[in-house]
Amino acid sequence: MTAAAPFRWREPSILPGFGLALGITLTALSLIVLIPLAALFLKAASAGPADIWAVATSPRTLAALKLSFFGALIAALVNAVFGLILAWVLVRYEFPGRRLIDAAVDLPFALPTAVAGISLAAIYAPNGIVGSLFAPFDIRIAYTPLGVMVALIFIGLPFVVRTVQPVLEELQSDVEEAAALLGASRARTLLKVVLPPILPALLTGFVLAFARAVGEYGSVIFIAGNVPMVSEIAPLLIVIRLEQFDYAGAAVVATMMLIIAFALILSVNLIQAHARRRFGDV
Amino acid sequence: MSDAALPVAAAAPVRRSSARGESLGVRIALIALSLLFLLLFLLLPLAAVFVEAAGKGWEAYRAAITEPDAQAAIRLTLLVAGIAVPFNIVVGIAAAWAIAKFEFRGKNLLISLIDLPFSVSPVISGLVFVLLFGAQGYFGPWLQAHDIKIVFALPGLILATVFVTFPFVARELIPHMQSLGTADEEAALTLGASPWRVFFWVTLPNVKWSLFYGVLLCNARAMGEFGAVAVVSGKIRGLTNTMPLHIEILYNEYMGAAAFAVASLLAGLALITLALKTFLEWRFGDEIAASRKH
């Protein structure tokens, strides 16, 4: 702050407006995001240990959290596999309609979740265009946990494709040629030469898709059926608690969701940092 | 070493085509698999919106989007986005200016905090405002005593929407402004331009396309947000129902065709957003390249 102190909050600059810009940012951030989130933790804590324990360990809460987290995990895994294939196809192959397909991948970013929700429910219902294909085999998709996963796959897809795609584009093909010249099979080249450098990006896309899916609400509730203990996701349970004016119960479930999600994201980021050290910055 | 390598090199031209790329069969299979996946999860849902909307004919479609409750929902959606988006533009530009043009401690923490709303469930984004301003919330009694309504009213809808869309503008602007550096602004200042003149004549024109890109995504999310506004709206017809909430009510009342009719308007907005987004990425790809990573 002063010339005498070696410690400085910021490097000197002749540009103006630092105070104003940072002031606006911190004020808005505090009022809109930080204070409201703090109120959530405060409310959850105010419930008292016995009540928190009762809400947190009630079978309905555990079932909802399990569905949200495992549903998101499976959806993110499906997206990791198909997102990788899709990114590969979009970067490496030429085929008619490629640009259109490339643009369509971002649809879940742009399409409102409620619109996606009612549309997915219509398609995957037993009398829907896709659901009717599975109905003869006695497989129901809509109004079951499978339906939840369909919605979560929908909203998570662009995250994997859009994180992997730029890395694939920058990948030099000379290392692949070198591997091929040295006698490696194509499969071995892909596994040992192409996959390692895109792994961190794939993991990032996986985490982003997972994080989005855990909290997803709009696209899920229409297709889920919302049967307590079976197809009721955690965000819906929060809404139900709130509609019963059980503010503390809602806050406890919400806090559990946030803590588990942040812990998972943090641990994957640590693995990520390890992977980056090993394979270089991607 | 070199002796062993030679035969491989000599054999290489023969194997090369199959070893460098996949065989035609594999290519076709992968493309077909990708298209099938996209068809099932993206294209069919999009097409279904318009097919279902048209299901009961043009008159029913027109009636569904012109009835008073639908019109009120459309106006409310435009109003909420019309306030939330400009707010986020101002804050986003301020955040980008502070973060991209200056070096200070805690910058990475600040960036993480700005991105925080992305990893919070939309339902929780609405819940926090009910806990603060709801009837049993921290400020509930005070607000009631002063006859101010925030939750189940317009201010709550705006707050929840601003929370959810908070990071959009900032995260597009920050990487672009960082890549531009500060030389242009320093030159303008040295030549005697006033700070605001530097901002409006130098900085803003430089980043206009990445700003537009961020605003586009911010607006799409603001108009389409469901979970966060569902919690704070109270769903009073004609008063606090935005378009997505109106769709939910119609759908739950088994008025599917009407729900899809209103949904088709939002799907149209999504298509326009995608078209503009694709155009911006194609035309100004260098300026918004960083944004392709999320």
Summarize the structure.
The complex is a heterodimer of chains A (282) and B (294). Chain A is mostly helical.
Characterization of the model:
- The complex is a heterodimer of chains A (282) and B (294).
- By secondary structure, chain A is mainly alpha-helical.
- Chain A folds into two domains: 32 residues; 231 residues, MetI-like fold (Orthogonal Bundle).
- The two termini of chain A are 37 Å apart.
- Chain B has 294 residues and is mostly helical.
- Chain B folds into two domains: 54 residues, no CATH class; 237 residues, MetI-like fold, CATH 1.10.3720.10.
- Chain B has 14 helices and no strands.
- The longest helix of chain B has 34 residues.
- The N terminus of chain B is likely disordered.
Number of domains of chain A: 2
Q: What is the CATH T-level topology of the largest domain in chain A?
A: MetI-like fold
Order of helices and strands of chain A: HHHHHHHHHHHHH
Tally of strands of chain B:
0
